[in-house]
Specification:
With about 500 residues, the chain is of the alpha/beta class. The protein has helices at about 135-145, 170-180, 200-210, 230-245, 275-285, 305, 315-330, 345-350, 355-360, 395-400, 430-435, 455-470, 475-480, and strands at about 5, 15, 25-30, 30-35, 45, 55-60, 60-65, 75, 80, 105-110, 120, 125-130, 155, 185-195, 215-220, 250, 255-260, 290-295, 370-375, 385, 405-410, 425-430, 445.
Amino acid sequence: MKDFIKINENDNVIVALKELTQGETVTVAGNSVTAAETIPAGHKMAIADIPEGGDVIKYGFRIGNAKEAIPAGHWVHTHNVKTALGELLEYTYEPVKTETKQTEERTFLGFNRPDGKVGVRNEVWIIPTVGCVNNIATAMAKAANAKVHGTVEEVIAFPHPYGCSQMGDDQEHTRTILADLVNHPNAGGVLVLGLGCENSNIDELKKYIGAYDENRVKFLVCQEHEDEMEAGAQMLSELIDYAAGFEREPISASKLIIGMKCGGSDGFSGITANPLVGKFSDILISKGGTTILTEVPEMFGAETLLMNRCENEELFEKTVDLINNFKKYFQDNHQTIYENPSPGNKKGGITTLEDKSLGCTQKSGSAAVKGVLSYGERVETPGLNLLSAPGNDLVASTALAASGAHIVLFTTGRGTPFASPVPTVKIASNSTLAGKKKNWIDFNAGVLVEDAELEETGQKLFDYVLEVASGKKVCSEEAGFHDMAIFKQGVTL
């Protein structure tokens, strides 16, 4: 394993891959630099004198400006670097040519649905319309799991605190996300569980769900039944029997939709895990598949790299709106746009939002942007899509599932046990985390700073995802974790 990495030839910092102790000398492109202080693993050290106000360059791009003069050999982090980003910006479309060559077809074992969609799981979902029936939904799922048979894997309830006392777009978003989940093909059967007096009641939600198969989707209003548990048990038995009629069969990988997300990042994330997911994305797209990148605030500072890969000017304008509308959301709520890296991010070596974004956007690989989606909008176009959602792990991962992702790839340098409505593959940015949290981590990208090559490891990740799509459970599924969260954007009555 190397002691450090210089990511781009134009960088004036290196990233320590192991702790560099004070007085330790490294050779960078033929020049010797001595650490003037201890540099933690994942953190940056200046390899040239950076004047006060000068650009700090990493990934070949500016990640901020020096608050003070930073001599070569010194630690470069939040104490001496500040963001260089402004507020709303104007952009010019400067298209970059991208080319994705088609590669050989691969298949996975999935479930063909009558509406033409495919699923990678055959579960029965209970979707509450309102938080008031959360405990009933959970109790129903627990009881119904004793009746699971055939290819049905589990009955899962997805409690949430919304569905009432909401107004305007906030209420619309809740209804849209719930309807998206009802229509998700990973669910072989769905029970929509309502209270009866909520704003987003079942009759209202049906307008968002659209056409549905009465064998697959059933509705229960608790206030209309003397014993809602008994009525629910009967409906769930019927749904389990229906879903059990589906069998896994070979399906082209071109049908796969994969969401891409990161959280608890560190200084290794932009070197290992995120580029690895970018390589995966390129591989899947080369086979006709679809990937979705989200976390709009973690595009700030790297957004032009995505804008200029848009297939046409219309998509470019949509991406500009994607970025600026999210900035306006921050401004409307009187919050600082660029105060994003969390305490864990900073401890792991990420200094500014530019630093974080330039690492995060590497999950997009090199393919052209083919679609730009609003929050809750379902993906229609194969290839790379951008989705409007915040950086919050549970909210963004739920948004990816709602937009149609069968699986979410989640890169992390710090580790997290959470799940989402769909299988959530945790990819460690470093081998220390992968070894320590084997009950959380599904795939180790840390090998990329040891002896592994990106191309080969990317293929291994692709093969692993096909295994997950074919039924292999990820760690959070083995633990029985299933989370969902809706983007709360308005007042509560």
